[in-house]
Design a protein that fits this description.
It is built from five helices and five strands, in the order ααααββαβββ. A five-stranded antiparallel β-sheet has the order 1-2-3-4-5, sandwiched between helices. Strand 3 and strand 4 form a beta hairpin. The longest helix has 25 residues.
Length: 200
């Protein structure tokens, strides 16, 4: 990697991008890789089945699209690492040399309650825990250990529409961080105004 010139690197990156486009085209034709799974078929006959179908789609997304990106080495920092290594030194260079993309997150979802409000509206309270295997060398804080053990509660609003149960709203009932309010996810919002600088 240290002898990889920017020109040769860009040529390799171009080949990888072509491979990614081909893999996406293959997935569009229902072709799966040895590590992917068949696209789930939603079951919307009951509120619980609708919830589990929604989660199955999220898991399928993680195991196919994200897998393909990582299989081809196209994680943003993995793909650009040789270039950053070439322009950095000291601890900063060590950071880029040692960088590894994070592993797939493994989530444990438990339905705590399903409460009908009307014949066509049900409220589900779900606890979700991050049970991703802890990597060697991780140094969690007391708060992180507590959050991992407790998980986070979410509220799902399900409605019956044309004879099928579907998810209308998802609410995070506990903040992921202390400064975050309880909030609704997947809500149509206007475009963000770009102002904050997070990285150099």
């Amino acid at each position: 990697m240290k002898d990889l010139t920017p020109k040769l690197y860009l040529q390799i990156l171009g080949i990888l991008l072509i491979g990614l486009s081909l893999s996406v085209a293959a997935s569009d034709n229902n072709t799966t890789t040895s590590q992917s799974v068949d696209m789930p078929k939603p079951d919307l006959t009951t509120p619980e089945n609708a919830l589990r179908s929604y989660w199955a789609i999220k898991q399928w997304e993680d195991k196919t699209i994200a897998y393909e990106q990582r299989r081809l080495g196209l994680h943003s920092l993995v793909a650009t690492r040789p270039l950053f290594v070439s322009v950095s030194t000291g601890d900063m260079r060590k950071y880029f040399e040692a960088f590894q993309p994070s592993s797939f997150e493994v989530l444990e979802r438990s339905i705590r309650s399903l409460k009908p409000e009307t014949d066509t509206r049900v409220i589900a309270i779900v606890n979700i825990k991050n049970i991703t295997p802890v990597p060697d060398g991780a140094r969690p804080s007391a708060r992180e250990i507590k959050v991992r053990e407790r998980g986070c509660d979410f509220k799902y609003v399900l409605v019956r529409e044309d004879g099928s149960w579907k998810i209308a709203e998802v609410w995070r009932l506990e903040p992921a961080e202390s400064y975050m309010p309880m909030r609704r996810l997947y809500e149509p919002l206007p475009p963000l105004y770009p102002s904050t600088v997070y990285f150099d």
